[in-house]
Amino acid sequence: MDADLPSTRAASFDRRTVLAATGSAVAAALAGCLGGGGPSATSDDWEYLEDGPDYGGWFDDTGNFEGTVDWTGRDSVTIDVGAGDDGRLFAPPAVRVDAGTTITWEWSGAGGPHNVVAEDGSFDSGSSTASGDATYEYTPESTGTYRYVCVPHESMGMVGAVDVV
Q: Is the four-CA dihedral 55, 58, 60, 61 of positive or negative sign?
């Protein structure tokens, strides 16, 4: 009987190891599905303009504004809606694009209901939604700086801007 003891312990240890590893993997996967923050609010891949527009304090209460991301020369770009730890940021918050570039705002499903509304009324995604598969597209044809907000979270700093050249 003693001869069987080591193999029983080894088998038990192996099962525990497998169960622990499986449990950790499942927990990590669920954390992302259950509102674990949504997309990153910053990216090492973003190239910032050296001398971007002056937004006049527009981004003073925004936690992820580091400058204007240069996305000129692209046909289309995507801005995350519901980024950051609390899901209440646009990422990136400020971009420069060429006139005629299609901008798609893509909801993460984090941070509650969101919308995208231009300060000057030039675009509006409509009623706010918390859906993780919602998108809104706008293609600016005129140059200028378009400042926008998520109406439910504007006071929390969920604002953005598109500089069209």
A: negative
Centre a 10 Å sphere on the Cβ of residue 164 and count the other Cβ atoms it contains: 20
Superfamily of domain 69-164: Cupredoxins -  blue copper proteins (2.60.40.420)
**HSE value, Cβ hemisphere, 13 Å, CA-based, for 68:** 22
- Of 64, 115, 134, 73, the closest CA to residue 93 belongs to 64
Domain ranges of the chain: 1-34, 69-164
Which ranges of the chain would DSSP assign to H, the alpha helix? 4-33
Identify any residues that bridge with 137 across adjacent strands, giving them in sequence order.
104
Whether 157 and 93 have beta carbons less than 8 Å apart is answered as: no
* pLDDT values of the chain reduced to their tens digit, one per residue, 165 residues: 554 544 444 444 444 444 444 443 333 333 333 334 456 677 878 999 999 999 999 999 999 999 999 999 999 999 999 999 999 999 999 999 999 999 999 999 999 999 999 999 999 999 999 999 999 999 999 999 999 999 999 999 999 999 999
